[in-house]
Amino acid sequence: MQVNENKEFRPRIVAFCCNWCSYVGADLAGSSRMEYPADVKIIRVPCSCRVNPMFILRAFERGADGVILCGCHPGDCHYSTGNYYARRRMTMLFSMLDYLGIEKERTRVEWVSAAEGAKFAATMNEFIDTVKNLGENRKLRDLRCKE
Amino acid sequence: MQRIVDKINELFANGTVDRVLGWKVGEFSYDRTPYVFTKEGGLDGFAYDSFCANNLSKYLIAESRKEGKVLVLLKPCDTYSYNQLVAENRIKTENVYTVSIPCKGKVDVEKLKAMGMTGITDIVENGEELTVTTLYGDEKVNRCDVLCEKCLACQKTAKECDEAIEGEAYEKPHKDRFATVEELEAMSPEERFAFWRKELSKCIRCNACRNVCPACSYIKCVFDNDNSGIASKANTDEFQENMFHIIRAFHVAGRCTDCGECSRVCPQGIPLHLLNRKFIKEINELYGEYQAGDNTESRGPLTSFTKEDCEPSIVYEKGGK
Amino acid sequence: MLKISMENIDKLYAAIKESRDLFLPIESAGQVQFAEYTDDAVVRLDVLKTVKSAKDAFFPQSEDLMEFKVCGKEIDVIPPSGDMKEFVIMGVKACDAKSFEILDRVYLKEPIDSYYALRREKGLVVVQACGRPEESCFCNVFGIDATAPVGDVVTYLVDGTLYWDAQTEKGKELTEKIASVFDNADANDDAKVEASKAETKAIMEKLPFANLDLSRFNGENMMEIFKDERWNELYKACLGCGTCTFVCPTCQCYDIKDYDTGHGIKRFRCWDSCMYSDFTMMAHGNNRNSQMERFRQRFMHKLVYYPSNNEGIYSCVGCGRCVNKCPISMNIVKVIKTMGVTDNE
Predict the structure, then answer these.
(1) Is residue A6 very low, low, confident or very high in pLDDT (cuts 50, 70, 90)?
(2) What pLDDT, on the 0 to 100 scale, is given for residue C262?
(3) Is the Cβ of C315 closer than 8 Å to some Cβ of chain B?
(4) CB distance A96–B250 less than 8 Å?
(5) A41, part of any domain
(6) Which chains touch C (3 or more CB pairs under 8 A)?
(7) Residues B252, B120: one domain?
(8) Residue A2 domain-assigned?
(9) N or C: which end of chain C has fewer CB within 10 A?
(10) Res. C219 pLDDT band, cuts 50 70 90
């Protein structure tokens, strides 16, 4: 993220969205013309469980200031149980990031169903505010990726 | 040691086993190399003492696929690694004969060096006292002061093996294995970040921690896979150091038996066990006490779930300041 | 010869820093490494062996080679800037100093490696005679005198005083610049240095590996050694990690990799290890598929191939780092002892 002294800091957010719920939820937010900043880059994944810890780290490597994972509500996974595994996995990853001294608020998991367009937009707005307060991600990025 | 040798010779003689995975003497009295002894070659150079720290279980992935039966000597902590490998179907158990052997903790020569001893040519053990001969004179140290980090917090007792060789009673040191993890957790994020930067920046990416780890038993590691986009071979940036160590620890989370080999072999003395123990501690607290390698059946905590599991947001409430 | 008390040693560092970058053995998180000197650095000239050798100064573990910027259909190739500050590396021991000569034979031969050559040109080596050799040292086997290291400036650390003796033009030029921090050493000091050298030599002679026999590695038994069955025994416990390679002062293999930054490519090279499964990986695959072959390669290179290409000079300086650091305690000493005698002896 370029920090321009004249411009306010606009965090880069990467949102991994599961194909069956959250991506549709995001779509609904869009088609219902609910507003959330364009700084959120959505990456569609087949299931929240597809997200490997490496994906999160690599998003930070490339300059993300915050990474959010959205999937179906527990119990509603298209593949029955994928999000239960994702839940444990992300809990572990987030506590490890915190352990290494990296701001834990930069990572988040939120369950968004296909009908929750409003929740998607609200979640993104809230997350962006949180990350904005934290400022630029400096601890977990590869400086070579800086433009 | 004599009882172990006798037992092996007996099993050689009655045809139970063809080979033995053990330790061989080296150039110094404290230098031991894992070695496969054969029935024909005999036990020439065999050793088992306070310096046989290597966990031999990982060698079984290859050894158990060879012809004939291999006997493996497992210290209490190694029996857990063995179980874990069996649980993951990495060992052909029909070709393995397991023998558990007693252990009173292993001596870490690096700790002697950290005490300022240089030029160590010989270490003689006399009960709880070690006489260290160096090029610059002899010194005496208490054995308990120079045990491997992994042995200080070891409360493991041997799991069931084909044969058990019992040792004399031994009172294990009582270090709380999570004490340092808790200390780190109590620090501020900035302090923690500084601590890990200092430690991880020493990493030379030799992969010794990964290659020695019995839980890292994949045929091809993601860090060796050129198509993964992260196989950089060197720490070209701070990020690479962080990522390698987070992912290494993550890949063994829920499967790590806390055998401590990673920290022991690190040429840079990075306390890698603190990463593994953090995961173990979190798993214990959030998903119930779990000891990897306790048996060969149970599913690991990260390959199972309950519907009532906590949400990842729990991390915002717990952990350091 | 000049001298400076260790109490005032910071003045020497500061004086050198005025005109050049300075690298010293510095302790951080319990380990000593060659690193750039800063005011709060804990300098450990008294430590015999840094974990990694001094070769990083001339052949860093990773180094940027060039950059590519992609703009539409255009590709810009951006070469490295080429300007580098002159630097001094201090506290280099005799074994590491000798390793530079071994690296030179690889990198300064045609085609000259310009990155390495630039660093060699800009770098000034201040060597230090060894005071307390360790059990794993065997530099004397390769004809190295631990008390008479080769470099631009030779130093001796005796009884809290650092003695400074410039050897080359480069060394004398630096010495003139910083002469004000030194006192002149007298005959009494010379005697002290000589006494310390004699003491070290006496220890060197009785080191456990002082009499390693290299006679079988004379360039005539290449295939015999290569085909020796005993490699199968030696390699067995090898984990295939790169510890021995990365702590070694003479290992010189590297890999070139591209890092995609999202808006361009950064090409870098980094140390590689022949112990790794993807070492010298080519389109057709790998030419050494088993760990035995990889293990054998490392030692054949050091003891047979390199000498046969370099007038019999071995690619090992006997620093003993691999002896100390190998996770399974298999090392070049054990290889020399095993392969140094024929099978039927």
Answers:
(1) low
(2) 86
(3) no
(4) yes
(5) yes
(6) A, B
(7) no
(8) no
(9) C
(10) confident
pLDDT tens track for C122-154: 999 999 999 999 999 999 999 999 999 999 999
The pLDDT score that the predictor gives to residue C285 is 85
Q: In 3D, which of C178, C181, C51, C57 has the Cα closest to residue C120?
A: C57
- According to DSSP, the β-strands at C2-5 and C123-128 are unpaired
CATH code for position A94:
3.40.50
> Is there a domain that residue A139 lies in?
yes
Residue A133 CB coordination number (10 Å)? 11
Strands A66-71, A13-18: pairing kind: parallel
19-78 in chain C: CB under 8 A from chain B:
28-31, 33, 48, 51-52, 61-62
For residue B219, give both structure tokens: 């045929």
Which residues of chain A have a CB within 8 Å of the CB of B247? 53-54, 57
Residues of C in contact with A63 (CB under 8 A): 262
* Domain region containing A79: 13-145
Residues B86 and B184 in one domain: no
Its domain, for residue B100, covers 1-104+155-173
Contact status of C256 with chain B (Cβ, < 8 Å): no
For residues B241 and B140, membership in a common domain is answered with no
Place of tokens 């890999």: C255
CA-to-CA separations, C56 to B44, B236, C101, in angstroms, rounded: 41, 14, 14
A59, closest residue in chain C (CA to CA):
C262
Question: Measured in whole angstroms, how far is the alpha carbon of residue A89 from the centre of its chain?
Answer: 15
For chain B, how are helix, strand and coil distributed in percent, rounded to 5? 40, 15, 45
Chain C environment of A145 (Cβ under 8 Å): 261-263
Asked if the Cβ–Cβ distance from A92 to B236 is below 8 Å, we say: no
Q: What is the domain count for chain B?
A: 3
Cβ-defined contact of C29 to B34 (cutoff 8 Å):
no
- Distance between CA B318 and CA B51 in Å, rounded? 40
Which tokens go with C179?
């002469």
pTM given for the model: 0.94
Q: Which residues of B103-127 are buried (b: 16+ CB within 10 A; e: fewer)?
A: bbbbbbbbebeeeebbbbbebebee
**Chain B touched by A81 (CB under 8 Å):** yes
Rounded-to-integer distance, Cα A143 and Cα C289, Å: 36
Q: How confident is the model at residue B62, as a pLDDT?
A: 95
Whether residue A109 lies within 8 A of chain B, CB to CB, comes out as yes
**Any domain includes A88:** yes
Token couple for A34: 């609910």
B70 and B114 share a domain? no
For residue A135, count other CB atoms closer than 10 A to its CB: 13
Whether B53 and B121 share a structural domain: no
Looking at residues B306-321, what average pLDDT do you find?
A: 84
Residues of B in contact with C276 (CB under 8 A): 207, 224
Interface confidence (ipTM) of the complex: 0.93
Q: How far is C327 from chain B (nearest CA, A)?
A: 5
- Contact: C61, B204; criterion CB under 8 Å: yes
* Nearest residue to B59 via CA among B97, B91, B103: B91
Closest CA to B255 of B218, B285, B205, B286: B218
Q: Does A145 touch chain C (CB under 8 A)?
A: yes
> Nearest chain C Cα to A146, which residue?
C261
C114 closest CA partner among C84, C75, C158: C84
Nearest to B247 by CA among B225, B276, B269, B271: B276
Which CA distances in Å does C292 have to B146, C229, C232, C252, C298? 34, 11, 6, 20, 10
B308 Cβ contact list (under 8 Å, min separation 6)? none
- Residue C258, strand partner residues: C267
